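P.,

For your records, the input lines for the assembly:
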Amino acid sequence: MLDTAPKSSDAVIELSSVELALGSGAARVHILKHVSLAVEAGESVALVGPSGSGKSTLLMTMAGLERVDRGRVSVAGTDLAALDEDGLARFRGRNVGIIFQSFHLIPNMTALENVAVPLELAGERDAFARAAEELGLVGLGHRMEHYPSALSGGEQQRVAIARALVARPAILFADEPTGNLDERTGREIADLLFATCAERGTTLVLVTHDNALAGRCDRMIRIHSGVIDKGPAEADYDDAARSLAR
Amino acid sequence: MTSETAAAAAPALPRAQLALPLPLRFALRELRGGLRGFVVFLACIALGVAAIAAVGSVSRAMTDGLARQGQAILGGDIAFTLVQRQTTPEERAFLEGHGPVSEIAAIRGMARLPDGSDQTLVEIKAVDGAYPLYGALKAADGVDAAAALDAGRALADPELFSRLDLKPGDSIRVGGTELTLAGMIADEPDKLATGLGFGPRLLISRQALETTGIVQPGSLVQYSYRLRLAPGTSDADVASLTETANATFPQAGWQIRSRDDASPGLKRNISQFAQYLTLVGLAALIVGGVGVANAVGAFMEMKRPVIATLRSLGAPGRLVTQLYLIQILLIALIGVVIGLAIGAMVPLLALQFLADVLPVGAETGFYPTALGYAALYGLMTALTFALVPLGRARDIAPTALFRDAAAFGATRPRLAFLALAILSAAALAGLAILLAYDRRIALYFVVGVAGAFLLLRLVAWLVTALARRAPRARSTEWRLAIGNIHRPGALTGSVVLSLGLGLTVLVTIALIDGNLHRQLTQSLPERAPSFFFLDVQNSEAPAFLAFLNEAVPDSTVESVPMLRGRIIALNQTPAAQVTPAPDVAWALKGDRGITFSAEPPKNSRIVEGQWWAADYAGPPLVSMEAGVARGLGVGPGDTVTVNVLGREITATIANLREVAWESLAINFVMVFSPSTFAGAPYSMLATLSYPGGADPAREAALMRDTGKEFPAVTAIRVREALERISTILDQLMLAIRVASSIALAASVLVLAGALAAGHRQRLYDAVILKTLGATRRQLLLAFGLEYGLLGLATAVFAVIAGSLAAWGVVSGVMNQPFTVFPVTAVAAALIAVALTIGLGLAGTWRLLGQKAAPVLRNL
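C-alpha cells returned:
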C-alpha cells in the first residue's frame, strides 16, 4: 500500500523516470529528479513533503499543466507528451478536475456559472442543470446566484469542488484544498471530498501539509528535493494516527 | 435542498445565455465587473471618435448644403460665364432657347463718399430684372429688395455701411454717378457663385452700372448668364446642354457650371480643411491608443488568475483570446458609441455658431457615412493597440495558479499577435490615406506618426539608459528620482509616449500657426507693395502714373498691361481632357490674369528656353511659370491656346520662368510676346511701394486722392487685403487649435491613466521608505523631481519633433520661410513639466499621508 513503484496493471496515472527543471540560466532549478510512480483508479494519494520539495510541481505534471523535460507521463491512458497546449486543455476538461488552495473562482461569475464552466467548455447543452445539481450535492443549492465575493471561504471551496467534479472526471487533483480554511471548515471540506470521490470511484491526488488530511488517503507519497522517498513513511503515519486520535 | 429543486430553480437567465456563442457568453459575464480601469480607455476612444465624427458631420452638412442649394448658389440650373465681353446675339438666342435667362455683371470698383473724404473697395454686382432665378434676395429692416434696385439706388453688405460710416438712405459715388443706399443685404442667395472678394458687396441694377461708366474696354468685368431650365430637368440633361453649348459655340470661351457643382472651389476647400482636421482628430485617437494599450495591459494583468483558471478547466488558448478580444471590442464599442453621440451632436451646435461665418447655408442632419468612418477609425485604433497586450494572454499558463504572482513573469506577445497588430496599424494607415482628400499629405501624416512612435520609444530607452548610467547623486531625493526613472516597472515609457505624441502635435500646430501669422502680419507687409491699382485704362495710364509720382514722389511704381484669359487647350487638346497635377489644377479652372511684355518680368528667372527679342513681332510666344507648366505637362515648344476677349489665341511656349510669388510683386503665370494682343483693349495693373514702408495715414490719403482724380480706378490696399486673409486664417486656426487641443486632452488623459496605474507601486515605495525613515518632504521632492525630469525629456523631444514637422509643412508644403518661436518651445516645455508634476503629485500626495501599518499588512 505504501509502495511507490509503478503498477501498470490498473494504473490511471503512470510516471516513469520524469525529470523537470524550471527557470533559466543561473536561476534554473532541477525540481523533479527521476520520478516514477503509479496511481491506481479509485485510489486516493497524498503528496507530502517540505516546502519547495516539488510536490506541487509533481501534481501539475500529473494534471497536464507542466511539461516534463524527460520521462513519460501517462494519465487516463493518454501520453501527455503527445498533446499540444490546446490538446492538454481539452484533455483536462474531459479527464481531470483540479481544486486549488485559493479556490480560484472566477469573480464575475455566479456560483452556478462557475460550476457550469467546464461543461460549457465541453459544449454540453445541459450545463446549467447539471451545475445546479452538483451545487445541490455540495450543499449550496441556495447560493447558486451568489458571486464568490458573497461566499465564505468554505462555501467558495465547495463551489470549487463542485466545479472540479461536475464533468465527472476520472481523476481529481487538489492542491492544499483545506490550506486556506479554519480547522472545522477544513474537516467538512475534506469529508465532502473523500465521500464524493469514494462514491464516484474518482481517483484523488492531493498535496497537503496537513498530516491528518494525508492520513485519510489510501497512500502517502513523500517527496524530498524532487526525489520520491523510498520506503514506508512510518513517522508520518504515526503523526497522522496521533492527529486522528485527537 | 435536493438537486432537482436546485436544477429547476437555477437556470432562467443562463438558458437564455446558452443561445450565445461560448466566448461571447463568457465575455458578457466577465463584463459584469463593470468598466472600472477602463475610464481612460473609454474617454480616449470617445474623444478621438467624437472629434472625427464631428469634423466629418460638419463638413458633410456643409457640402450637402452646397449640393442641395446648388440652384440658388449658382443662381440657375446652369451658368455661362464670360470675361470682358457679353454674349453675341447668336449665343444669347441659344441660351434663351432653353429657358429664362438672367444676366449679371461683376466688377470691382471704389465706393466713395459724395464729398470724397473716404472710400473703399467694393465688389459690384449688377443684376437684371430676372434676378434671382432661384432663391430670394432679402434686405434687412423690411426693405423690399427687388424694388430697391433701380437706376439710382443700391443695396450693400452691412460691412460697407460700417466701413464708410453710413446708414440706409445715405449716398455714395461709384464711378461717375451717385447712388442711394436703399438698405442692407440680408441674404444674397448666389453670393458664392460670384466669389468672395476683397471688399463688401454692392448690389445694383444693370442700368445703374451703365450710368457709373466704370465698364470700359479692357475692364475686368465678368458676365454671367444663368438659365432656369424646365422643372424636372435631370442632371444628365444639364450635362448634355453643356456639351451642346460647347459644340455649338466652340470659340465662345465661356466657363460653364451646372447646379450639381455650383461651387467646386468651396467644396474642395471644405474637403481639404476637413481632411486636416480629421488627421488631427486621428492623431488624438492614436495618442489615445497608448491609453488603450495601457488599459488593456493592466486589465490582462489583473485577469491572469482568471485566465489561468479557465485554462486549468480546459479552455483552449483560442477561446481565451476570443473571450478577451470580444470584451475589449465591446468596451471599445461603448467608447465609440459615446464618441458618435457627441460627434453627431456637435454639428447642431457648431453650425449655430458658424452660421455667420459660413458662406453656405449648411443644414444639420445625421450623416451615417461620416459617423461610420469615425466608428471604424475608433474600433481599428482600439484593435491595433489592444492586440499586443492581448497576445500575452494566450500563453498564460495555469501553473501560475500554484505559484506567487511574481512567478507569472513577463510573457512575450506571440509573433502572430505582433504581426496582426502591425497589419491592423497598416489597415488604419491605409484607411486614413484612402479616405483623405490629398493622399500625399495623409501619407506624410502616417509616416510622421509612425516615426514619432519609434522615436518616442527610442527617447524613453535613452532616458532610461542615461538614468542608469548617471553618476550616483549625493542627494537622496535625486538618487531616488533617478533610480525611479530606470528601474523595472518605471513610468518612463508610458509618460514619454503618452505625453510626447500630444505635445508634438501641439508644438507643430502652434509653430505652423505662428509662422503663417508672421507671414501675414510682418513679412508680407514689409515686402509687398502697399497698393494694387486695377482697371487703369490704357488711355489714362500716363496721367495716372504721373499722378502717383506727384502724390508720392519717393515711391516705387510698377505697371503692366493686364487682360483676362482662359486656357482652353494645350497642344490642341481641349483643357477639359487634360489631367493636371492636383496642385496646379486651378490653372485650368476659370480665367486668369495675363500680360505681355518685351522684357522678362522682375522677380522671375528663366529656367528653360529663351526670352524673345525685344523687337520680336512674329507668331505669338508665351512664357509660362515653370511649376504650372510642369504640372500641366507642357514645356518649351508646346502650344497653349487661350481665349481672350472672345478671341482664341494659340501661342508657342518659348520659355519657363521661376517666380518668387511670396513677394506679392506683379507677376503672371503667362506672359505673352508684345505683338500677341496688338490692337486689343486692355487696362493697366499698377503697384505702389513706399520706401521704408507706409503708414496707414499716408495710405488713406493716397486712396482718397486717387478716388477723386481717377474714379474708375480700383485701389486695393494690401494691408486691408492681408488683414482680411488674416481674419479668415484666424477662424481656420481656431478650428485647428480646438482639434489639436483634443489631441493634447487625449495625451493628458493617457498620462493621468499611466500615472494612476503606477500609484500602487508608488504607495508601496512610499510606505517602505517612510518605514525606513524618509520624511514626506523628501518623498515629495523625489517624486516631483522624477516627474519633472520625465516631463522635461518629453518636452525636449516634442519641441524638436514638432519643429521638424512644422518646418516640413511650412517650407515643404507651403513653400514659406520657417521661423522657430522660442516662446512656443518654452511654453510647450513648461506645459509638459507642469502636467507631469501636477498629475503625478496629485496622485502621490494622498499616498504620502497614509499610515504605514495598514498598508504593510495588506501588501
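Two observations worth noting. Residues 438-527+720-859 of chain B form one domain. Chain B is about 55% helix and 15% strand.

Regards
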